[in-house]
Write a structure and sequence with these properties.
Largest sheet: 4 strands, mixed
Mean pLDDT: 89
Oligomer: single chain
Distance between the termini: 14 Å
Structural class: alpha/beta
Helix content: 25-40%
Radius of gyration: 21 Å
Shape: globular
CATH superfamily of one domain: Vaccinia Virus protein VP39
Strand order of the largest sheet: 3-4-6-5
Order of helices and strands: EHEHEHHEHEEHHHHH
CATH architecture of one domain: 3-Layer(aba) Sandwich
């Protein structure tokens, strides 16, 4: 599969994309303002090759926090899936891939976002399959759960079978150790001179004391009382914040703040710091030579928002097999 076109309006995401995929056209625009006719012309130019559209709207409006309230707060990003549907209807790509948080299915706004999207796909002639998946079941070292949809205009299509876990071809899950243990040591606030994007955020003196007292796989419950936050005392939740990863287990879900020790179980298993940009990228299964541009916050956001590369590879091969089976590829 070759990448022909990309659309985003984040300047740092554009910089990262262009340096890694110099042969692909990047349109720096908002999907709500882009010309559908211009995209349709690009699709036509690619024919008779089959065309895949991948749409991954920002997930924040559909997170558990925003979808379990009685009246979810809507922001402008809720409409982005409908904008993607507009382009699908105009261009009729052969294949579709959509990724978001499971909460996308639960949003009860006026637009009935996900259900309306599915209705539009059916009307446009697509067959599709969708469900929440746990990334660890596909060989990704992460317990993250995502909603995945695959669609085709050529015939029935289903999500690929899980590959990892009890009863699967690979009974064990992929672990943090497999993906980052060979990277050289660095301290909090340091950058490695030779390993690309191997840079860790700084820690305050207090948080340095806290992480020193945190065992591998442990968290703030193991701290002495004088290091605990007042707001966490007596609470049963918040066990992941200020936590360390375990070497021989998948990581917890990487978020857009995946390099911040205080925002999740993002502490390195045995070094006194949060994971680096490169380590976060490894746990999202990016290749080591993938370049990220922007400041540390922006790079972490790009990594946390990304679809893990291993999952896209599995799905890409699945799409190709689907087209071959139906005789679309000759």
């Amino acid at each position: 599969m070759n990448i022909a076109y990309a659309l985003d309006h984040d300047a740092n995401a554009r910089a990262s994309f262009k340096i890694n995929f110099p042969g692909a056209y990047f349109e720096f625009a908002d999907i709500r303002e882009v010309s559908s006719e211009g995209i349709r012309e690009r699709v036509t130019a690619e024919r008779p090759n089959p065309v895949l559209f991948s749409g991954c709207a920002p997930c924040q409006p559909f997170t558990k926090h925003n979808t379990t309230k009685p009246t979810p707060t809507l922001d402008d990003r809720v409409s982005l899936l409908a904008n993607f549907a507009n382009l699908v209807e105009k261009c009729l790509p052969d294949l579709l891939f959509v990724e978001n948080v499971p909460g996308l299915q639960k949003l009860r706004a006026k637009s009935q976002t996900f259900e309306n999207f599915l209705k539009r796909l059916r009307k446009a002639g697509y067959r599709f399959d969708h469900r929440p998946i746990i990334l660890a079941h596909y060989g990704i070292p992460q317990r993250r759960c995502r909603l995945i949809l695959v669609g085709s205009r050529h015939g029935p299509i289903f999500l690929p079978e899980e590959t990892h876990g009890p009863g699967r071809a690979n009974p064990s899950f992929s672990t943090v150790r497999e993906w980052i243990s060979d990277l050289p040591e660095i301290r909090a606030g340091e950058s490695h001179q030779e390993v690309l994007n191997h840079r860790a955020a700084n820690l305050s003196p207090l948080n340095l004391k806290r992480i020193i007292k945190t065992p591998e796989g442990g968290g703030n419950r193991e701290w002495p009382n004088h290091l605990k936050l007042k707001c966490h005392k007596g609470l049963s939740g918040y066990t992941d914040v200020y936590g360390r990863m375990a070497w021989d287990a998948p990581a917890s879900a990487l978020t857009t703040r995946c390099i911040s020790y205080s925002n999740g179980r993002f502490g390195h298993p045995n070094q006194n710091r949060a994971i680096s940009i490169r380590e976060a990228a490894c746990l999202q299964t990016f290749p080591r030579n993938f370049v990220f541009k922007g400041n540390m916050g922006s790079m972490a956001q790009q990594i946390g928002n990304a679809v893990p590369v291993r999952l896209t590879e599995i799905l890409g091969k699945h799409f190709i097999a689907h087209l071959n089976e139906l005789g679309v590829l000759i």
